[in-house]
Design a protein that fits this description.
CBS-domain, 7 helices, three-stranded mixed beta sheet, about 150 residues, about 45% helix, 6 strands
């Protein structure tokens, strides 16, 4: 299972020069808790989360109109490629203490975002499939007449 297969392809983004107010309105309008901060080449520079807004803007009394996303975003994020394994993505998430990670193509352009929820849903589907195979192949069902 690789990151490109299970990531969410529809990603909400923001430019680093945008105001925090504009970004927070976008998050509200789109009902998302994360925006990936990208450069003009669609390469990830950071992530802006609802937590970033609370901790770095609201809690400090920072003015959201005059503050840019670059000033409050989470920087130094790692990304995974579409071909990266889910295990590699989980290792990076664990090391960085994050729940989501950008997925990039060979040119490091953003193609998706992989979240812990994406991974859990994929694993749940895999386990469900395994359960069906085990149920269908169990000795109790082999002797049944259809």
């Amino acid at each position: 299972m690789n990151a490109g297969r299970i990531c969410t392809k529809s990603v909400d983004t923001v430019a680093p020069e945008e105001s925090v107010l504009s970004a927070s309105r976008r998050m509200s309008d789109r009902n998302v808790g994360t925006l990936v901060v990208v450069n003009p080449h669609n390469q990830p520079l950071g992530i802006l989360t609802d937590r970033d807004l609370v901790v770095r803007v609201l809690a400090r009394g920072v003015e959201p109109v005059g503050t840019t996303v670059r000033q409050v975003m989470t920087r130094d994020i790692e990304a995974v490629t579409e071909e990266s394994s889910v295990e590699d993505a989980l290792r990076i998430m664990r090391r960085g203490g994050c729940r989501r990670i950008p997925v990039v193509n060979a040119e490091t352009g953003l193609v998706g975002i992989l979240t812990l929820d994406d991974i859990l849903k994929s694993l749940a589907a895999e386990f469900s499939d395994i359960g069906r195979v085990l149920r269908d192949q169990s000795p109790a069902t082999l002797g049944e007449i259809p």
